[in-house]
DNA sequence: ATGAAAGCGCTAACAT
DNA sequence: ATGTTAGCGCTTTCAT
């Protein structure tokens, strides 16, 4: 798109600000600004500009190293051609894969994707405030608190397309794309139950979802109840959402003085890796002494020792659908944008103690 | 900064485009647009606006849910207040830490940081083309190829401040911030030599640095030579830069039919984790059968089995210095912006076979 | 087949 | 202490 100057050497500019503008190109090509705009935006053919004129313009633009000014273009067009991904945790490779797919889908739809890192609520609100200024046409984000939902609704009302990742709200204008966490938590727990474990603890991410019900936990509880276990069999440890947090959870369980659970269902794979590590340090064997199942299927789990059994999320699908949903809304603001609730997939590896390390479908391995 | 509408409910707007502009605020407050601009940008005090007027303006802005339009503001100001981080690999947590620090430093300097993911050269060039349009005031990026350097020089000549991460070029206007990879590679290799290993292979990232000399390798070679080993003792395996690549390297070494090296110096920790995993799969014990040293110090290495000995990069420092360098240039375009070459730090854990798992200083553990 | 002119929303120099 | 005016660089009717 942007023409390159002859040889890395920037061409001399003329304007008041020192920047080369479309007017300079026009003068050099001996045409009007209109023509330049038409040609450079591909409308030259439609408008019936002669090939000669088009060539002159392109030539001049290339010679001057002209690049259109984004601010001016956006101001005039009242849109940016950008989508923004508000990332809650850059350190978790989970999002890298979601973002990659979102970016690819955006590119296909003619949009460019940029990312803003915003871990805590304040950062997210600040980022949303930036978005209100029109820096982007749409946003993909998580929305864990009511304040963020309020801000998103406002954003949406201003014509900026919003879609949430995982978090579901009540505004039909803001669809959600996510995986069925309840079913996932249920599948993970049921798998452990099927392997004969009874005392199964859940390691949860602290403060991860202040607003929404913790669906993994519901699935976990439901599985326990279905197995005829008393509700108080549920044992939940809350720790920070990180590898260190996972290790901390194990430390807490160890410090309790009560016998260790037979199995752990962990909030996500990152934390599960931390738990695996702490268990190893403590001289416990996984899955021999204690079984572990993670959640989300980040590639890291395939490289741990032992390899991690997990409920894999369709991360690329998530990213693609999110981007497509945003673009659908942008293309037709009237029609309600589509959301999606995708199934997770139980991936049986080593850490759960099932013999066959084959990967089974979502139904859960009937291993034991 | 951005005022919130009364109760999540967007206030009725008036303008032709449906957006609330500063003119609406002005009318509502019974003042001029100038006054609104002054007040909302904090210049109200300096310009000597009466507190009453200021209050009126703020009131009106809040009531209308006014947010300044970014495109218009940027166009007028000829700057954006943004910095951009061009991230070559979102999946590697290495960059998450660098970005976090860069973002914090940017915020301190009054800038906001956004991120563009650009893995391959084409994506990077496209991103730089976007930057030429003035979407950001400065950029932090890697610059592994000549085409990218050309594009960066052009960008820099247009007044957009550039700083590279790790890659050093010859343009004084584009400083580099990085760690001393040669010294790091030397320290890692010397550590392995000091532990008594002689046949030490290097697992390198394929195509990682088409342009620049691979400094890790130089350090590696230098250490071998200093130990009196013949230059051809150097054995280098090139694989993709990923965990899977690290595993692949081990597979290649195994397939050679020759005896396995006594030790591996791996390009980065991510790849080293993959190598660790493959070695474990192959029934080899680390460090018993083979020692492994990684590079970069990503937190993951502290949670692997065995824990990874590595050369830790000061990632937060890197990010902070990069952002500060860009801002320094922006604040004073005349003065040459500062670069930095920071030392890595050998962190001795388990995978190398040194007994004491204590972390030693950069000089390298005199362990064996 | 091409050009002239207006205006997107904002800020800042210059009045008053 | 506040208002008037011009213009950032672009796109897009509308006119020729």
Structural features, described:
- Chains A, B: Pfam families: LacI, Peripla_BP_3.
- Chains A, B: This is LacI family DNA-binding transcriptional regulator.
- The structure is a homodimer of 368-residue chains.
- The first copy, chain A, is α/β, with parallel strands linked by helices and 368 residues long.
- The first copy, chain A, has 12 helices and 12 strands.
- The first copy, chain A, has a 6-stranded parallel sheet with strand order 2-1-3-4-5-11, sandwiched between helices.
- The longest helix of chain A has 17 residues, at 315-331.
- The first copy, chain A, is elongated.
- Chain A starts with 21 loop residues before the first helix and ends in a 21-residue tail after the last strand.
- The interface between A and B is large, with 66 and 65 residues.
- The structure holds a DNA duplex (16 and 16 nucleotides).
Which features characterize this protein?
elongated; DNA-binding; LacI/GalR-like_sensor (chains A, B); homodimer; Rossmann fold; disordered N terminus; transcription regulation (chains A, B); alpha/beta
N-to-C order of helices and strands of chain A: HHHHEHEHEHEEHEHEHEHEEHEE
Shape of chain A: elongated
In total, the number of domains of chain A comes to 3
Q: Give helix % range of chain A.
A: 25-40%
Identify low-pLDDT runs of chain A: 1-16, 356-368
What is the CATH topology classification name of the largest domain in chain A? Rossmann fold
Let me know the largest β-sheet of chain A.
6 strands, parallel
Question: Proportion of β residues of chain A?
Answer: 5-15%
**What is the tally of helical segments of chain A?**
12
The main sheet of chain A orders its strands as: 2-1-3-4-5-11
Please report the first level of CATH classification, the CATH class of the largest domain in chain A: Alpha Beta
Oligomeric state as shown: homodimer
What value does the Rg of chain A take, in angstroms?
A: 26 Å
The tally of beta strands of chain A, per DSSP, is 12
Structural class of chain A: alpha/beta
């Amino acid at each position: 798109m942007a023409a390159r100057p002859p040889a890395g050497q920037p061409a001399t500019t003329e304007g008041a600000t020192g920047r080369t503008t479309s007017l300079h190109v026009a003068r050099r090509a001996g045409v009007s600004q209109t023509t330049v705009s038409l040609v450079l935006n591909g409308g030259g053919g439609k408008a019936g500009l002669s090939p000669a004129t088009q060539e002159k313009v392109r030539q001049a633009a290339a010679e001057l190293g002209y690049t259109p000014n984004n601010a001016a273009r956006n101001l005039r067009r009242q849109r940016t051609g950008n989508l923004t991904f508000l990332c809650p945790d850059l350190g978790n490779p989970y999002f890298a894969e979601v973002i990659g797919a979102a970016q690819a889908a955006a590119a296909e739809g003619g949009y460019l994707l940029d990312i803003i890192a915003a871990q805590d609520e304040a950062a997210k609100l600040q980022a949303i405030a930036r978005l209100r200024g029109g820096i982007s046409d749409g946003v993909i984000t998580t929305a864990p608190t009511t304040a963020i939902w309020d801000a998103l609704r406002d954003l949406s009302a201003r014509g900026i397309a919003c879609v949430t990742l995982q978090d579901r709200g009540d505004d039909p204008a803001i669809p959600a794309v996510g995986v069925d966490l309840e079913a996932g938590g249920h599948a993970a727990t049921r798998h452990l139950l099927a392997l004969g474990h009874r005392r199964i603890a859940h390691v949860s991410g602290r403060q991860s979802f202040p607003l929404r019900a913790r669906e993994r936990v519901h699935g976990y509880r439901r599985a326990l109840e279905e197995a005829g276990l008393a509700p108080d069999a549920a044992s939940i440890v809350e720790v920070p959402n990180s590898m260190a947090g996972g290790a901390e959870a194990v430390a807490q369980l160890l410090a309790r003085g009560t016998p260790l659970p037979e199995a752990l269902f962990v909030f996500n794979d990152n934390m599960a890796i931390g738990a695996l590590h702490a268990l190893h340090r403590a001289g416990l064997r996984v899955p021999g002494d204690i079984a572990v199942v993670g959640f989300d299927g980040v590639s890291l789990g395939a490289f741990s020792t032992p390899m991690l059994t997990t409920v894999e999320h369709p991360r690329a699908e998530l990213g693609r659908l999110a981007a497509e949903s945003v673009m659908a809304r942008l293309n037709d603001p009237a029609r309600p944008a589509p959301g999606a609730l995708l199934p997770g997939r139980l991936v049986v590896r080593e850490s759960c103690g099932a013999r066959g390390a084959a990967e089974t479908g979502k139904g859960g391995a009937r291993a034991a």
